[in-house]
Each structure stands twice: as structure tokens, then as C-alpha cells.
Amino acid sequence: MRILALDTSTEWCSVAAGDGSRWHMRDEHAGQAHSGRILPLVRAVLAEAGIALAQLDGIAFGAGPGSFTGIRIGCGVAQGLALGANLPVIAIPTLEALAQEARRVHGWNVVVPCLDARMREVYAAVYRFGEAPDGGRWRVVLAPTVLPPSALRLPAGHDDACGAGNAYAAYPSLGAGLGLAAVDATLRPTAQSIGDLALPRLAAGEAVDAAHALPLYVRHRVALTTAERDAGARL
């Protein structure tokens, strides 16, 4: 099966096309320019892979959490391409994709992916790979959440956990505070990892129609009203 995968949940714009055994990829630090860069990268990747959009079996995207604007762009582009080509869509949580990237790069099987959520908070989760009955897939130990870094706790029995993501650079004491075995703050969700996670789900019939693909925001508000701020409210 062949799939197009994309992620715009961070400052990077990442696109990959392939079948799991071989990926054609483009990664670009886009900053705030995702909307202008994502489609050119999609065209370049498909051309490099020699695959027309209609020859794909599905489209996957990083559903969040992450940048609100980036997530909306990724979801909208995936939906638009899928609707035009009559393809199913697979929404992959970006923190799970970050855990997958950590496993791909380092071989880690217990990962605490953390992304800087700004506003003195982090997006975090805990995943363990390969435990029965989920052999070959990630098991959710702590579902994606947003919270102050000081409030994050590692569930008991996960002393072999490792940390991945830019929150460990934003909050240098976070990894030591959690007692993690290792940390790589340079890792980020990539389209290849999203594709790796999406392919078995596509084969298992877990994809949805484009219109039903939804982002995973976790934090549903990014600002307070004037009245709330005057009253001293906090997100």
C-alpha cells in the first residue's frame, strides 16, 4: 500500500510518500509559512516517488497536539487532497509520531514525548511499544494532555522511559525531574513516522472519509477574553 503523509504541527513542514519499505521525504523549517510550503513539498515528493495522487491508497496527517494554525493547515490539506482523489484519511496523534521517531532513531520502546505548548505548559503523553495484546503497536500509558511541566508525572513501573521533543530543551530540568533514562530534545514528529504508523491502520480499515478527519487540539483555547483577563483568570 502507498500513502502520502504530512505534518505541520511544529515549525517544520514534513512530507513523505512511500509504502513502508521505502520513503521519499522532504523536511523544511517553515516557521509560520506552512500554508505556502506544504503543497509544493507534496508535489515534489510525489514527483520524486513517481506516484500520482490517484495512485495512493490513503493520506495521513499529524493531527496534533501542536501549533493550532499548523494543525488546521495539515488537516485541511489532507482533507482537500483526499476529497479530490477519493482517498481515505488517517489522523495520527503527533505525540505518538514523536514516540515512533524516537524508536526509529534510538530504538526506545517507552517514550515520554513532550512538545513545548508555550504559555508555560507542555503537550505530553507516555507510550510503550509492543506489549501484548498490542504487539507491534504503541500502547497509550498516559493519553495526550497539556499541563505545566512541573505537574507531569511518570506512571509507576516505567523506569526505562526516555524523553523526546523540544519541551526538554525549553525546560532543561524536565527529564531529570521525571527520572528518564535518556532524553533527545532534537526529535520532532516527522511525516515518515506518521506514515509508518498510518500504514497498518490503513490496512486494518481504520481510515475515515476525508470529511470525518479531525484534529486533536488537547488545549481548546489559546486566549482569554478581556473580561477574563481583567478578572485574573488563567488558561
Order of strands across the main sheet: 3-2-1-4-5
The helix-and-strand class reads alpha/beta
Integer average pLDDT: 92
What is the element string, with H for helices and E for strands? EEEHEHEHEEEEHHEHH
Largest sheet: 5 strands, mixed
Give the overall silhouette: globular
Count of domain modules: 2
Number of helices: 7
Count of DSSP strands: 10
CATH superfamily of the largest domain: ATPase, nucleotide binding domain
Intertermini distance: 43 Å
- Can you name the CATH architecture of the largest domain? 2-Layer Sandwich
- Rg, rounded, reads 18 Å
The low-pLDDT segments are: 222-235
What is the CATH first-level class name of the largest domain?
A: Alpha Beta
Q: What is the third-level CATH name, the topology of the largest domain?
A: Nucleotidyltransferase, domain 5
Proportion of residues in β-strands: 25-35%
Helix content: 25-40%
Task: Give the topology, please.
Blueprint: E1 3-7, E2 12-18, E3 23-29, H1 34-49, E4 58-64, H2 68-85, E5 89-93, H3 94-106, E6 110-116, E7 122-129, E8 138-147, E9 162-164, H4 167-170, H5 174-178, E10 183-184, H6 191-203, H7 226-230
Parallel strand pairs: 1-4, 4-5, 6-9, 9-10
Antiparallel strand pairs: 1-2, 2-3, 6-7, 7-8
Helix pairs in contact: 1-2, 3-6
Q: Could you provide a short overview of the structure?
A:
With 235 residues, this protein is of the alpha/beta class.
Structure overview:
The chain is of the alpha/beta class and 235 residues long. It folds into two domains: 3-93 and 189-212, ATPase, nucleotide binding domain (Nucleotidyltransferase, domain 5), CATH 3.30.420.40; 95-184, ATPase, nucleotide binding domain (Nucleotidyltransferase, domain 5, 2-Layer Sandwich). It is 31% helix and 26% strand. A five-stranded mixed β-sheet has the order 3-2-1-4-5, with helices on both faces. Strand 4 (58-64), helix 2 (68-85) and strand 5 form a beta-alpha-beta unit. Helix 1 crosses helix 2 (68-85) and helix 3 crosses helix 6. The protein is globular, with a radius of gyration of 18 Å. It starts with a strand and ends in a 5-residue tail after the last helix. The model is unreliable at 222-235 (pLDDT under 50).
